[in-house]
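Each field is set out underneath.
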Amino acid sequence: MFENSRTYRTSLAGRELQIETGKLAQLANGACMVRYGETAVLCTATASSQPREGVDFFPLSVDYEEKMYAVGRIPGSFLRREGKPPEEAVLAGRLIDRSIRPLFPKDMRNDVTVSCIVMSLDPDCSPVIAALLGASAALSISDIPWGGPVAAVCVGLAPDGTFLINPTEEQRKDSRMAVTVASAGERMVMIEAGAKIVADEEMYQGILTGHRANMELLPLFRTMREEIGKEKFTYTAEHASDEMQDDVAVYALDAVRAAMDTSDKMVRDTRLQKVYADVFAHFAEQYPDSEKQLDESLYKLQKYVVRRWLLDEKKRVDGRGMDEIRPLAAEVDLLPRVHGSGLFTRGQTQVLTTVTLGQVSDAQTLDDLGETKEKRYMHQYNFPSYSVGETKPGRGPNRREIGHGALAERALLPVIPSVDEFPYAMRVVSEVLSSNGSTSQASICGSTLALMAAGVPIQAPVAGISCGLVTEGEHWMTMVDIQGIEDFFGDMDFKVAGTKEGITAIQMDLKIQGLTPAMVREALLKTHKARNEIIDGVLLKAIPAPRGKLSKWAPKMETVQIPVDKIREVIGTGGKVIRQICSECNVQMDVKEDGHVYVSGQEEAGTQRALDIIHTIVEGPKPGRIYCGKVTRLIDFGAFVEIAPGKEGLVHISQLDIKPVNKVTDVVKVGDSVMVKVVEIDSRGRLNLSCREARIELEGLNPADLPAPQPRENAHRRPTKPR
């Protein structure tokens, strides 16, 4: 039945890699099932037969889907089925997109969809790598025009300095970096990295290690293409004629140069609007109904001007040097009620970041295929339309916003203190106020400011910067801190974030068919110098170190470790005890399975009172110790005070105050909070408490200067609790 079924096999990092074709999804333009270990991913590539009307870009869509059955789990949603893709799936789709997009014809307008469905997951074998390899195989054997194949691996760094190709789940726990490298031919087309402050040279060698591993994989895909690949279909390329392009260049070249020669984006846009209007009017009769083609001609003319300035004159649009950063500014504490805020400005790019601190139980619960179940550090990025001067309603975060937020999160995560050092959940939100290039890197800088202002003891400040590239044949050049127009007309946006000591994150966006190792090395060198300049020259001048105390609006958090066998007593039957503590002390509590108890509240006194109660429950009352208790009931000759749930004792009337008391109700009433000292625990475990002794100790009073307590009739009698 499956006569065309073929299976290709190779070994990758000591595990078998199989690519099966001709059996599944036979109506797609190209399809394969990738099996890596026990990970299985179905990958398909389809294309529309006709170009999409009215678009001036290549309409590629990459969908990466995680099926919960892949790990034998039923989805936790109400409908018990997969819904909106989790963040990790969106990021995987973006990674695959960036790896394959540069190799499609730029003038093709046919819709192309690449779909990768994770159907079985082996934690030791990355489904993202399997999906990327499957996408490459499906496109290679399809009839869709594409300049691949590509190959990709993930590179880890063991504690002993050994590079690991596609590390196992256990190896990933100790790895100092995770770098995904995709290669086509002799060049790298995609790099994405997260690292625990890794030196530039180590990162560079890790990237090269991945690239060399890819070189060994590529022949497999070429063999598939040669043996079973379909002939690529021809497509209709819609673009302006050479004659129109030449006419527009002759007429408008000087005007375009003059319009673009400014550092102000708004001025440039206003000037170009006039140039566009003039060109449309001038060629209305010669090229009727051709605004779309004229628009394309003007776009190419702008691209020509920018690239010629860079390549021939070493000139940038705003007059900067190639390694010069735009004017920088930074400040903190813009918003009085938030727990921490920071504003970072670089040229006309501006990002305001806020930090909100919460209890550990506020960590985000993850419902995906990964081994991590919750995330205590959350970084989100918002890009409203007003930041680029446009009018468009907000529709929630798109894939780009999710991706930029994840990049900033990855960059800062290595410097975030552990939960033992700083027992808080942290939500960081970066609001892009204006955008003219590299807002994701500006959000990293703004987030460093906000975290330090919030009093989060980060290990070191982190800064991010981008490096651009322009190529022509074998000639190429790089420039630091690209603004929007250089990103738009250039060939690369190489984003690097890190501390002064090393790299924490990399993300590379590419428009050409790959980078050489020399290009990568130069980008790493230039971005290191630039981020040091940002850290020393701007960030540390705005706030030299994390604040020593939290905002008065931040919750006060305390942590205590209790024996595991005492957890039940602290929680109580049906949660009765923990609810009573939270209500009485106005706090929130989170009890972990390992015995860690996190207590948070707006008032420090309340959190301390809760801790005292927990210690009392776990250790039991201790003679000689002072506790804050609550009056629960009154009798003629005293008051009963509860110092912890189920831990109650009697304060005799003679011990209610430092002066003689005639009537209990003259001093206390039910519900009052009082300080008491445990004077005695009798043979039956009953507590004798004293407010008098507590005051003497707390206030440093001399008992000889005080009236002696007067013994009362029936002082020895203790009533039993009413049934």
Summary: The mean pLDDT is 91. The longest strand covers residues 39-51. The chain is about 30% helix and 30% strand. The chain has five domains: 6-228, 242-313, 328-542, 555-619, 623-723.
